[in-house]
Specification:
- With 519 residues, the protein is mainly alpha-helical.
- It has one domain: Amino acid/polyamine transporter I (Up-down Bundle), CATH 1.20.1740.10.
- It contains 23 helices and two strands.
- Strands 1-2 form a two-stranded antiparallel sheet.
- Helix 7 packs across helix 18 and helix 13 packs parallel to helix 18.
- It is globular.
Length: 519
């Protein structure tokens, strides 16, 4: 609904003496034709790319290069850095992600919040903003792709990534909060760029800034890939699969909605995501639990398959093409990392905005994300797919999860409902991820180019939401796997170099809590 600025303007719809339209009419026409023009531009872009590049030359060449990098460099590089780094911090911090879990929950509940703390949002809003970026397509499409390519054993490696991810999230978010910076408007900027530049300056000299710049550029690329195109692609494919809506129509709608919301900044994003995350979590959680509960007799066998295939690999047969142990591990780690983003360095950007005087306290809040995202929600999707036998359907992507939900609910006398639940759930998961990642990318843009770069970045971000909707599934996901490595490897190097700072902050925090009789 269009509102005029004042009553006199609202009541006066007559043309002025100079023959021009009244102000309120001008607003209406501008908005109407602006949306119409945007829609036509999207159509033109779609048909141009469809005729010029679809399944052909240019995009295929790019896709082949990306696949080569992922298969021979990126996939192995992440394995060599992620798991050893996680194990190092697990033992160095003495399984802090396990014994400090009850305290972390109390912090999120707001038990220790103070009004005078500096920052943009409280612990709960920082958590939901970060969760809205991680709880997304990876929980529905990512799990099915991991099983399709790596077999059921890939789920085990997703769990490993999630467990190690808890300590990695603690580490990177503690550092992010410690080295955060305040902008001219009072808002907060933080993340790996800042702890690389300021925390590593003594160790690396000028190379600390170089590492930070590399990470900042990688964050912008990842915001367009991980948090944008992968989500939009999954939404548009789900709506096309379920409702027959053309991808370009869905893409236009999502792009428009995204631009309307992201202009508000982190506080507006936090308000939206606080509402979206519980809705999407409850909707999907309840539906999956009902189906799994109805097939409870299959649960022990499902866990057996997961643990057995995790170390043996599964020969290519039925609905999946994973054939070796290494393939199983790589696909589990890839999709686990895509799901929870632990070690990738994205969540620290959101957690830097939290209101607290203790950096380690926000790290404890962040450690809950992989628990919720990977160890709980992804496990539900995996059991849903394996229990119902959908993993042997030969269907790739969101269709596998839709088949699992349809099959499970159909056995309960509720046919043709699962596709709607998955589609709506996926939309809520993925759209909130798009919103949150726009914030991550804007913080990186500010770091690289200054505060004036935010609006141009947001426009480009909105355009790529549309592109992600119309480009092929394989190209989008291959791009996602590539840009994740660009963020993850520099970030893990920084975490290892800054481990003494993390240990010091951890000891300081718990010493303070003991003095106050809190812990």
């Amino acid at each position: 609904m269009i509102k005029c600025v004042n009553n006199s303007e609202a009541n006066d719809w007559r043309s002025p003496n100079d023959g021009s339209l009244p102000p309120c009419s001008q607003k209406f026409i501008t908005l109407y034709y602006g949306n119409l023009i945007f829609s036509h531009i999207c159509q033109i872009i779609f048909f141009t790319f469809e005729n010029s590049f679809a399944m052909g030359g240019f995009l295929q060449a790019i896709d082949s290069a990306i696949v080569w990098y992922n298969d021979y460099i990126g996939g192995y590089a992440v394995l060599l850095f992620l798991i050893p780094t996680g194990l190092y911090f697990i033992f160095k911090l003495r399984f802090l992600n396990v014994w400090a879990l009850p305290h972390s929950i109390k912090v999120v509940a707001g038990k220790y919040d103070k009004k005078g703390d500096e920052g943009d949002v409280n612990h709960f809003k920082a958590l939901t903003t970060a969760l809205s970026a991680t709880v997304g397509t990876g929980n529905i499409v990512g799990v099915s792709l991991a099983i399709y390519f790596g077999g059921p054993g890939a789920v085990f490696w997703m769990w490993v990534t999630g467990f190690l991810g808890m300590i990695l999230k603690y580490t990177e978010c503690t550092l992010s909060h410690k080295y955060r910076q305040f902008n001219s408007d009072g808002s907060v900027s933080g993340g790996p760029m800042y702890y690389m530049e300021h925390g590593l300056k003594k160790q690396l000299g000028k190379w600390a800034k170089v590492l930070a710049l590399i990470f900042g550029a990688a964050t912008i690329l990842a915001s367009i890939g991980t948090g944008n195109m992968a989500q939009a692609n999954s939404i548009s494919n789900a709506f096309h699969h379920t409702y027959g809506i053309a991808n370009w129509i869905t893409g236009t709608a999502i792009a428009g909605l995204t631009l309307l919301i992201i202009i508000g900044g982190i506080k507006r994003i936090a308000e939206v995501t606080v509402l979206l995350v519980p809705v999407m979590a409850v909707l999907y959680f309840v539906s999956a639990v009902v189906v799994i509960g109805a097939n409870y007799e299959n649960i022990p066998h499902s866990f057996y398959i997961i643990f057995h295939d995790a170390f043996t690999g599964t020969a290519a047969a039925g609905g999946f093409v994973g054939s070796t142990f290494m393939m199983t591990m790589i696909w589990g780690v890839r999709r686990g990392l895509f799901s929870n983003e632990a070690g990738q360095g994205s969540a620290p950007i959101a957690h830097a905005a939290a209101k607290t005087e203790y950096a380690a306290r926000e790290g404890l809040v962040a450690s809950l994300e992989p628990l919720i995202d990977t160890l709980i929600i992804c496990t539900l999707t995996a059991l849903l797919i394996i229990d119902t036998g959908a993993w042997q359907s030969g269907i790739q992507g969101v269709g596998m999860t839709v088949t699992a939900m349809d099959t499970g609910l159909g056995r309960l006398g509720l046919p043709n409902i699962g596709n709607h639940i998955v589609t709506i759930g996926l939309f809520l998961f993925a759209f909130s991820t798009i919103i949150a990642w726009s914030y991550y990318g804007s913080r990186a843009s500010i770091y690289l180019f200054g505060e004036k770069s935010v609006k141009p970045y947001q426009i480009i971000f909105g355009i790529f939401v549309f592109f992600g909707s119309i480009w092929g599934l394989d190209l989008v996901w291959h791009f996602v796997d590539m840009v994740i490595t660009f963020m993850t490897i520099p970030n893990l190097i920084a975490l290892l170099l800054l481990s003494p700072v993390v240990i010091k902050e951890t000891r300081y925090y718990f010493d303070e809590m003991r003095k106050k009789g809190i812990y």
